Amino acid sequence: MLLGKGILFLFKSVILFVLIVGFLSIVAAGAFLYTLESRLPNVEAIKEYHPPLLTQVFDRNGELIAEFFKEKRIWVPLDEIPVKLQEAFIAVEDEDFYRHKGIDIQGILRAAWVDFRAKRIVQGGSTITQQVAKRMFLSPEKSFIRKAKEILLACKLERVLTKRQILELYLNQVYFGHGAYGVEAAALTYFGKHVWELSLAECATLAGLPKSPGNYSPFLNPQNAYARRAHVLKRMLVENYITPQEYEEALHEPFSLSKERRYRVDKAPYFDEFIRQKLVERYGEKEVLEGGLKVYTTLDLTLQRAAQKALRKGLEAVDKRGGYRGPLYHVDSEHPAPPAPKEISIGGVYKGLVEKITPKGVVVALGKVKGLITKKDMAWAPGWLKKWKGFEAYLSPGDVILVRVKDVGYSGQLRLALEQKVSVEGAVLSLDLATGDVLAMVGGYSFRRSKFNRAVQARRQPGSGFKPIIYTAAMASGFTPASIIVDSPITFYLPEKKEFWKPENYEKRFYGPTRLRVALAHSRNVVTIKLLKKIGVNNAIRYARLLGIRGELQPNLSLALGGSDVTLWDMAKAYATFPTGGKLYSLRYITKVETHDGTLLEEFKPIYQQVLPKDLAYIMTSMLQSVVKEGTGRKAKVLGVPCGGKTGTTNDYRDAWFLGFTTQTFTGVYVGRDNHTSIGEKETGARAALPIWIDVMKEAIKGKPIEPFAIPPSVVFARIDPRNGLLARPDTRNAFYEVFRKGTEPKRFTSPIVRKNIYNIGLQ
User: Fold this and answer.
1) Dihedral (Cα; 62, 64, 68, 71), 10-degree rounding
2) Structural contact between residues 344 and 369, judged by C-beta atoms closer than 8 angstroms
3) In b/e form, how buried is each residue of 265-283, taking b as 16+ CB within 10 angstroms?
4) DSSP string computed for 183-228
5) Pairwise CA distance, residues 378 & 361, whole Å
6) CA distances (Å), 748 to each of 445, 577, 738, in order?
7) Among 12-26, 156-170, 334-348, 669-683, whose mean pLDDT is lowest?
8) pTM of the predicted model, to two decimals?
9) 137-146: pLDDT as tens digits
10) Is 44 assigned a catalytic role?
11) Annotated catalytic, 126?
């Protein structure tokens, strides 16, 4: 009896203890949840949420050329996302999405059991709503407290947002690998198409990625991607989102992946970085990287590609004319042979190992694949001023070299050409003369190798490229293209150096009385120096400033020979004033900026100042045409259209320029080394820079009408004697029409030609 009462008492005590513990646990849990909830972020703020969006940059024809972002995301509303893609995600990620209130109890219990057995967080059991809550408000850490917060936030989100709003957030937030956030960025990255253009199979592929983007990437692991896609399609079939026929068709659809698999779009790297810097200056880095701006630029991507190709080709030619500088290294105990290329394609450049030298050529190994370099394909090795000395003079067995694959021979052996890393740099800048728009900008041989933009940042001596500015000041001071200056020796004493300076022409000779048109066309140094002395250095500097030249200009006679540092950007502005009738443009590179939803933020119109009279601008245009017709730029005649320009070469061939234009387009080319050493013997502007200019301008004139330069009414033409620039008589030999600003044409006639009578010679 007593035993029974004792057992009953013990039972009641246990029950009471359990109830008390349970009550206290509930109170503690409630207090914990209350405390936890009070510290949760305000989910109401999600209504004002603006996700980080990528900024897109377009060329003048609307083609995407660049992307700037912190997270590569392009927001699209749910109505533009295919229903099949929505269903694919729901089927594989959260089949009860439209039925639960934010959490899936069964899923949580199942995940909790797995986590308990593993003694760590293995599965999350998260619904789509929970994933949104975690992504938007929580850190990615795996802990029970973070999980509790996630559950509470998910329940709150379900009260604040509709299911469609939650799904839209999720589909635009989730990470897909390769830098792509959201379904639109993923569709463009993997398939090169917009999300609304995806097939069922492509929808299933994307839906399978968030679980493990790296493991299921069709780029990296196609077999895993096929299997994961099949799983998603199976889930869609089970959930009755697709028919058995749709399932079978999608299951066997091959991957049609984008050919351009890039983390970011960057088609004109020097220009793109230039634009990024300008946008950050104007709008701030956060807005540029997260604001989803749409930036419309002036760039012509077709011309840009031509400029990039032309510069690389031209710099490679200059570099090879200097001869072969030797192998990358020689194989020894510390320097192993290079690994075999993963794949070999015609036109590709690879590291190869010289195995042996035979009478037929140099045998090179690319891993197990063999190739042969013949004399023809390394004939440039001595340099253009030296003679060929045999294969052994340049290469030895064990050398690691660069080779370009030209072709595959009948025996399967590769035909190779010797290459080397290009050590010469350069820049190209093209402008639309109707608007001052930047059409192309290339700042160097390789943006990956050097981000220094030589089109806008490099300050180099322009050499004779500066002479047109001197001649502009002279024409404004009353000189004419027919004015005569005697090309003869002259000596100056330089007090600062305590030495004498005796300038020379490039040809090392003097030409006597010379018309200014001829002097500019043939880049006569002595005539230009004498001309500068006559008009005054300060006057020339004033016109340089008027034409947009910034930076320090040396106030001495070396200005005539381009002895002061300038940028290609400034020289482009100055030269563009001539064919545009005296307009100095504030070069435009952005036409408009919009917000991510298409609202216009800013628009930029062409801006210019009339800095030269039209007749003066035309005189200079005409004189620069003579540079092409008969002077140092005559190679440019190959274009077959009216054009003008000027070569520029500095001492010791350190810098080479060609600055030229047609009626519609200006292009400037600079070639030089970053360390200011010589680019090579005889590498003048005509030899090093002009061929690049020609290749760029061939693309620029395609499909455009051939137009002459417009002649303003304030110029006149007069027939002159080429010997002295005076008005020609009817019997003057070689007379031609010269152009003058009205009022500056010569007033006196040349002397009559005296014809001697040979029959009277003996009588006199």
Assistant:
1) 120
2) yes
3) bbbbbbbbbbbbeebeeeb
4) HHHHHHHHHSS-GGG--HHHHHHHHTSTT-TTTT-TTT-HHHHHHH
5) 10
6) 54, 32, 15
7) 12-26
8) 0.85
9) 655 555 555 5
10) no
11) no
Q: For residues 97-114, b (16+ Cβ closer than 10 Å) or e, as one string?
A: beebebbbeebbeebeee
Residue 298, judged by CB atoms within 10 A of its CB (0-12, 13-18, 19+), counts as buried
**Cα–Cα distance, 740 to 144 (Å, whole number):** 88
**Tokens, residue 501:** 């300076």
Encode 460-492: b = buried (16+ Cβ within 10 Å), e = exposed.
Answer: bbbbbbbbbbbbbbbbbeebbbbbbbebeeeee
What CA–CA distance (Å, rounded) separates 661 from 686?
Answer: 15
d(CA 629, CA 622): 10
Rounded (5°) CA angle 596-600-606: 125
The label of the residue with tokens 């693309």 reads: 699
Question: Considering 217, 430, 464, 523, which one is annotated as catalytic?
Answer: 464
Tell me the β-bridge partners of 429.
Answer: 441, 668
**Domains, the chain:** 72-251 (1.10.3810.10), 326-419 (2.40.50.140), 713-764 (no CATH)
Longest CA–CA span in the chain (Å) reads 177
Residue 255 is given by DSSP the state: P
C-alpha separations of 48 from 42, 138, 314 in Å: 11, 17, 53
Residue 754 has pLDDT above 90, yes or no: no
User: Pick the catalytic residue: 87, 93, 273, 699?
Assistant: 93
Instruction: Give yes or no for residue 524 having a pLDDT over 90.
Output: yes
Q: How far is CA 398 from CA 324, 336, 354, 378, 421, in A?
A: 17, 10, 5, 18, 19
- Report the interhelical angle of 83-93 vs 128-137 (nearest 10°): 90
Those residues with Cβ within 8 angstroms of residue 714's Cβ, 6 or more apart along the chain or in another chain: 613, 614, 615, 741, 742
Phi, psi torsion values for 27, nearest 5 degrees: -60, -45
Which residue matches tokens 């030409």? 511
Extract the tokens encoding 761.
């010679």
pLDDT tens sequence across 428-473: 999 999 999 999 999 999 999 999 999 999 999 999 999 999 999 9
Phi, psi of 143 (to 5 degrees): -155, 160
